[in-house]
Specification:
The structure holds 2 protein chains of 2 kinds.
Chain A: H1 19-29, H2 32-47, H3 49-52, H4 64-75, H5 80-97, H6 101-106
Helix pairs in contact in A: 2-5
Chain B: E1 2-4, E2 14-23, H1 27-38, E3 43-46, H2 61-67, E4 76-78, E5 82-84, H3 107-117, H4 128-143, E6 147-148, H5 155-168, E7 173-175, E8 177-178, H6 205-212, E9 214-216, E10 221-227, E11 230-239, E12 246-260, H7 266-273, E13 286-296, E14 311-313, E15 322-326, H8 331-337, H9 342-349, E16 355-362, E17 369-372, E18 379-382, H10 387-407, E19 411-413, E20 422-423, E21 444-449, E22 475-477, H11 492-508
Parallel strand pairs in B: 1-9, 2-3, 2-12, 3-9, 4-18, 12-22
Antiparallel strand pairs in B: 4-5, 6-8, 7-14, 10-11, 11-12, 13-16, 13-19, 13-21, 14-15, 15-16, 17-18, 19-20
The chains are: A mainly alpha, B alpha/beta.
Chain lengths: ~120, ~500
Amino acid sequence: MCAFYPRTDELPGLEDTGIDAFLVQFRRETTSLMWLGVLAGTFVYFVSPLITIFVPLPAFLLTKRLRDKHAFNLGAHPIYLVRQTAMLVKLPAGLCWGRHPDVRAKFALPPLPPDPDTWRTT
Amino acid sequence: MTHVSYRAKGEPPYEADVDYVVIGSGAGGAAAASTLSRAGASVAIVEAGAWRDPNDYPNSTYGSFRDLMDDWGAQLAMGRAIWPIVQARTMGGTTVINSAICVRTPADVFDRWERESGIGGTASGRGALRDRVWAHQDAIERELSVEEVPVAARGRSNELAFLGAQKAGFPDSHYMRRYVKGCIGSGQCLQGCRALKKQSTNITLVPEVEAKGLVLSSAPVEKIVIDGRRATGVRGHFVHPRTRARGASFHVRAKKAVLVAASVTHTPVLLMASGVKNRALGKGFRAHPGTGVFGCYADPVDQNVGATQGWASTGFREHPGLKLETLAIPLELVASRFSGGGIELMKRISEYRHVAMWCHAVRAESVGSISRNFFSGKPQVSYGLDHADMLKFREGMYLLAKQHVAAGAKELITGIAGMPYKMQPNEIEKLKDAPLDPRAYIAILSHLFGGAVMGSNPNESVTDGRGRVHGYEGLVVCDAAVIPSNLGVNPQHTIMGLARTFAEDLLEA
């Protein structure tokens, strides 16, 4: 996930936005289908460097530069279904990254108060 | 005045008797229920989602997916391309998360229904359905304070769109009329309007029904009870809004009728699960597939300041068959619209303040179907666009690009796979040769129709022109599932007008 939203000079990366805690929350709250999608997308990310950058190694063995190139090529891959697997990871990761106050501040957006997670009971 | 929310397993089954049970509390369900309630009938609204007031609305897009969307927004239409379907599951239905756009049903829609489906022209003469729906729409506009987006709430994206459309010579360019009272442009339509300005049905019509009747929330109906050929009530189990734990059972009996307004995808599946036999059930699914083009501007646009959707043109509805409108995409979702990943994606996102996204919705003639998933029992949508619709789709991309250029965009981002990420203003003619493969586009299905379409022929339709299911008594469909054609405009007003008409027919019967 972090490879899709790396830290740059301008913006915080996913690793700066509490992704570990987010994943715990996401796994607990989301549907099994959504969670399965994240796992499938992550799996494809790890095993697909051969079809994105033509390197026969799993993604975790790539150098930082190659990992970045792999993440880009996966998200812009000419084969539709391959491209869609990147979406399975980019979407939930974006939900974490884009709600973080440090990220929002970079875009002149106010911090978001916590979601109340409440409803009418009477 | 009764609201019954989640009851845990082990609590006694909840039972009630009313004249009418209405399944669903969105545009169709709430409009029908309020009509019946005002006439003095006892009415129960049974809603699958939780009842969240504006103070309960989420602030983040994550919260919106979790608390307001059906199945976390993971409902998909499967065809050559896989496109998500936008539907809510909360008290108020999709009226909570939409942009509350109010467009009167065009006259040609009724003509087509009469010509192709044989409805609308019976009883009191030609045009009767049209006149009745329009009369209800007049009343709804007054009740829900429909107004044009106020100047102070427009925001730069909507103003640029208006300017671009004017310069490009687009017909019928206008600031939208919406069910919003005194919009302050907080840009939170999609998360639910915490400012209490959007007149979604959970804060307007549903409380009105609750004051005189019964409302069940977190209560997904599993089955409509049908005795012989007569619908007599609904059964299901409460579901906890957070844990999704199955709770106590409920059974609400209807002395007069059950009205189904569970959404285009859920209504046909619920009818199937209840044993309704009809060969047209699940057929005739249609939608407005759409996507957006980003314009990059020299000065910040800050698309989330101002109304989420504030400008539209219906001038291309007839030809080529499109609606154009603005849409502010939340920061959390923007990366999903930009291709790639890694440092290059971060560079792309860093332009967020300077981009405006304007969208098209295709008045597609392609037809799909809805079935019931064998394992989960959930709706399964099969849908794809044919060549003619893809031509419209592509033309929409060109028109949006042209509008951005006219508004002063320095560059364009189309998101079309196989084309350059960015396009210069002098390159937009290339869009006329953009791919016609739907897989090249990141699109969504925003407005849905059909699945339990109305018509005079019971072999080709599920309901008659009054929403009554053919061959059954006391069973009425009153949501967009009955709509047999693509409207080419936002459907909420049509759904509400039809639902009120059907409810009125029930009272007269």
